[in-house]
Amino acid sequence: MADQCRIVVFASGNGSNFQALIDAIANGRIPNSKIIRLIVNRGKAYATRRAENAGIPWEYFNLISNGFQAKGEKDPQRIQESRDKYDAALADKLLNGDYRPDLVVLAGWMYVFGKPFLDPLEAAGIKIINLHPALPGKYDGAGAIERAYEDFKAGKLENNKTGIMVHYVIAQVDRGEPILTREIEVCEGEDLHQLEEKIHSHEHQLLVEATAKVVGAITTRKHSR
């Protein structure tokens, strides 16, 4: 279908969020869409098995294994140069390969993209969205759930609530415009593992809802051309 939204998913691990997207496209919760490729940066990511089971092509592309950065590199300038080259190469794959997407979904992708990846995609009109286990402006970056829980134990968590969001990706980590958010209450007596499980139980639904919302805007725009 000419107005179908072509999606590339990036994942690093188990791929449960990726599976939620596969299932939602199959059952029509995300309509007029097709996942055309999965990209992983960890060789043992179980997400690749999920892709194979769904008949989705996948590719392993890693900063070190693909020769962009030497293993054990410590020099900050060389690390940054390596990351810039890796980001630019990934952008080139998406823009000039045989699987140019309309939308990129980061579903458990454990790597922070810089401007050499983000700027070319923005110039091409390709949106990038990401799931983050915190509310807008709270607990940016890694360890968000742990930091919220520590604040809860210290009596500093506002209204005893944390949450999750799906947002557009920009250079500032987890600071892009939110698409959908959901508050989650931290309960007295709850341990960190229980809080993590509760948050993860909401992630699939929010990611599917947000992806469907973005896809709707993309397909409407394509149809009106």
Highlighted features:
single chain, alpha/beta, seven-stranded mixed β-sheet, 40% helix
What report would you give on this structure?
The protein is α/β, with parallel strands linked by helices and 225 residues long. The protein has helices at residues 16-26, 47-54, 76-96, 115-123, 144-153, 192-223; strands at 5-11, 33-40, 58-60, 103-106, 127-132, 161-168, 178-185. A seven-stranded mixed beta sheet has the order 3-2-1-4-5-6-7, sandwiched between helices. The mean pLDDT is 94.
Written as H for each helix and E for each strand, in order along the chain, the element string is EHEHEHEHEHEEH
How much of the residues is beta strand, in percent? 15-25%
Poorly predicted residue ranges:
none
How far from one another are the termini?
14 Å
* Number of alpha- plus pi-helical segments: 6
Label the structural class.
Answer: alpha/beta
Oligomer state equals single chain
Number of strands: 7
Which sheet architecture does the biggest sheet show?
A: 7 strands, mixed
The best one-word shape is globular
**Mean of residue pLDDT?**
94
The Rg value, from CA coordinates, equals 18 Å
**Level of helix content?**
40-55%
Query: Taking strands numbered 1, 2, ... along the chain, how are they ordered across the largest sheet?
Result: 3-2-1-4-5-6-7
